[in-house]
Specification:
elongated; alpha+beta; two-stranded antiparallel ribbon; 7-stranded mixed sheet; single chain
Length: 225
């Protein structure tokens, strides 16, 4: 602007000088203020955008809404069972296998005891045991096993495909672990030792990690009764 103004000036006849102020007004202070405000707003918008984008770089939080879902299995009485059967009540669900020497029986005992602590209120909760070992956990075998934990506990098994699908939807890991020195059929299952509390609509409500006591579980369930 200054350069242009200087050039213009040289072209104009010297006799009629144009007042300095007319064509080249000094840059108004108000305008400077407006531009500064625009710059600040722009920078803030960029910072805001970067903050809003940043979670992409961070490990995602466990997507609670993504845990659970419809399933098709068979109960310990040999009856086909889908998610619909459990609707309308809370479902306290554990994934394990009947041959588990320690972790599973402890968790199932704690689940049964937690319902005992809750008393009548426990009627709103269905305790469920879903096997991660469908090859060995037949309905008959589960029926015998579940007697030890709670009279209303429902055992669920199915084909390897059906159980794999339910494990996937509940984000439960399970894999065969051969026993050293044992024969081919001798194996344990490595698996996620987690107890889920699912709502009457099948939505995830909370979970209890391995080591949670019956009291901890009862307290956690009571919040949702
Ligand atoms: Ni186990």
């Amino acid at each position: 602007m200054m350069a242009k103004a200087a050039k213009d000036k040289t072209r104009r006849p010297q006799k009629t000088p144009v007042p300095e102020a007319a064509p080249e007004k000094p840059f108004p202070r108000r305008r400077v203020g407006q531009i500064a405000v625009l710059l600040v707003v722009g920078v803030l918008a960029m910072i805001g955008y970067r903050i809003s984008q940043s979670p992409i770089d961070e490990p995602p939080a466990p997507p609670a809404a993504a845990i659970g879902g419809p399933f098709t299995l068979v109960d310990h009485q040999g009856r086909p069972r889908t998610w619909d059967y459990f609707k309308g009540r809370l479902m306290l669900v554990y994934f394990g296998f009947t041959f588990c020497p320690d972790v599973c029986p402890t968790a199932l005992t704690d689940m049964g005891d937690a319902l005992g602590i809750l008393g009548e209120a426990a009627d709103k909760v269905t305790p469920v045991f879903i096997t991660v070992d469908p090859d060995r956990d037949t309905p008959e075998h589960m029926k015998e096993y579940l007697k030890f934990f709670h009279p209303r506990m429902v055992g669920l098994t199915g084909t390897p495909e059906q159980t794999a699908a339910v494990l996937k939807s509940y984000k439960v890991f399970a894999a065969k672990a051969p026993v050293e020195g044992g024969d081919a059929g001798d194996y344990l299952m490595d698996h996620t030792p987690i107890i889920y509390l699912m709502g009457p609509d099948g939505a995830y409500m909370t979970h209890f990690s391995h080591g949670a006591s019956a009291e901890d579980i009862a307290k956690g369930i009571r919040k949702f009764l």
